[in-house]
Amino acid sequence: MAGKLETEDPGGPFETPDDTTDVIFIVEQKKLYFNKMLLGMCSPVFKRMFTADFKEKSGKEIPLPEKKYGDMVAFLQQIHPLHCGEPITDTNISQILPLADEYDVDSIRKRCEQYIGVQVQLNASSPLSDDRLLFYLLMVEKYKLPQHRQGLLQIGVKRKATDLQQSQYFSLVPSTATRDLLLKRCANLECFADKTVQKLRKYNVQQLNEPDHQGGCVCRRFNDPERFCRTCIVGKVIQDITAVFSQIP
């Protein structure tokens, strides 16, 4: 029957009431049974909702028309003591974190931040893909999780800008983060360019008039390391430029 609330899969999380149930969320025409006290202990938003002069205070059923069923289940699992052992993953963090931010559940926000921190640390042994890097940067920037922002930016400056632009998440990352990422990369490139210029300046152009390179190379005279024949100076410049630019990610 159209409009009838679905109650299939009774064994699923929060799909059946128990003796602690005192609130029912209606999400995508499905019921989720939960406890107001647990919600109020974790979330100041829910606490105000259930204690202040809101209609939810006395109502047992609360419709959440703009929420997705799977997202709410994943979120409630992080609150309920029998399910809070559910690990944060790349899949559910995008379900959980927006709701934790909306309902101001700081404990869940911290768990999400810790998860991202672990992924940043693992980058040293198992480099993050461009998609995952920008996905985490999107999460920390959008939901104000600053602890690992710099770590993600440091990883990002070693990636090619053209590669990052190909990621499905590039256009979703807030402009404040992409701006800082690209500025850091520009600063790195300027630093490498300055090092190259400094290396080139140490060679005296007048020394290029030394005799042509000969077998055994006698261009260094009187143990003077700055005197090179034309062939050696060109080779030395190429060697130094290659050494500097090989450091550029």
UniProtKB/TrEMBL annotation:
Domain of life where this protein originates: Eukaryota
Gene3D superfamilies per record: Potassium Channel Kv1.1, Chain A (3.30.710.10)
Record-annotated BTB domain positions: 21-80
PROSITE patterns according to UniProt: BTB (PS50097)
Record-linked InterPro entries: BTB/POZ_dom (IPR000210), SKP1/BTB/POZ_sf (IPR011333)
CDD domains xref list: BTB_POZ_ZBTB_KLHL-like
Protein name, per record: BTB domain-containing protein
Source organism per UniProt: Batillaria attramentaria
